[in-house]
Specification:
Length: 353
Amino acid sequence: MSRLFFASIWLFILPCLDGREAAGDGLELARVRPAARTGLANAGWGLDRYKELHGLRPHESQVIADLSGPGVIRQIHITHTRRQEDIVLEIRFDDAAEPAVLCPMTFFFCNARLNTSVIENSPGSWNAYFPMPFKKRAQVMLRNDGEREILFYSFVEWETLPKWDKTLGYFHATYDRKIFQLTRDSEVVLFETAGRGQFIGRHWTVTTDEPVFNEWMALMEGNNEVDIDSVERVVDYLGSEDSFNFSWGWQGTWFGLRSGITENRQGKLSVYRFHPDMPLRFAKSFRWTLNFRFERYGANMNTDEARAKNSHWVNYQTVHYWYLDQPGGYRHAPLAPLEERKQELIKGVASAP
């Protein structure tokens, strides 16, 4: 037998010698950790044991969990409710000046009935299972931007950590809305951040009423270019649908553990992809660009025509999810007023040549 064969066998056996357990042995759930302490924070529902709890009052920011570290949030559970589109989710770690998470709540949960390892929309409730470690403090907040009180119930499950591990990143998520004329000249930066971390997923909701984009043929295209640490196109997906694990356009609806098409109708498309098994890692910077400049399809995407007719308008509402080595510092795009956020489609004015 070859030396390579024996070397491979030895590398397999070595971690198991003397009763040592190999990392990733599948026994994590069975390991008893008596030093870890589990906790749960209730909020919202004051019609039971905890009379001091109350609904989300108009224009109120309510802290639904205020936790001392080191620890890790394991689950965030929030009931479906009327006017839930009025709610903004905000999460801060270690008293950072800027929130790590700032999203309209329903967009954070992908606006759909889905069932993944990190986000679950079960009957009657939203659930997030992203592990969210923190060194000193974690605050989970809901903000009501509407004019009426919102009745809800939430809980946040968490556990203590024996000590802070410097290799842990802080969970981040951000919402943005890009309004632009989609033509052969379109090149739009959808997301960028600085620092050391790893990118783990995204959600798009795309809306348009332009006849040129019927059947989503043009919008399935666009190179998804990922620049990492100032190196251009370390990852370059040739087609938007392929970047979400689909091919040959957006076909119907489909719900998977890692990717899905949650809405696909005339004028509106919603898609998601999570890749917790292989995040996109970066040491200094990360940028995601949607680039249509190299497309052969889309003869109806003429830039001059779009300007002359003030047409070809599309809205890309996005949520990006990642981990960063710092609890704060990311500058979120300002959220538009509530009534504007509720509009599925907003158009602008064509720019001059």
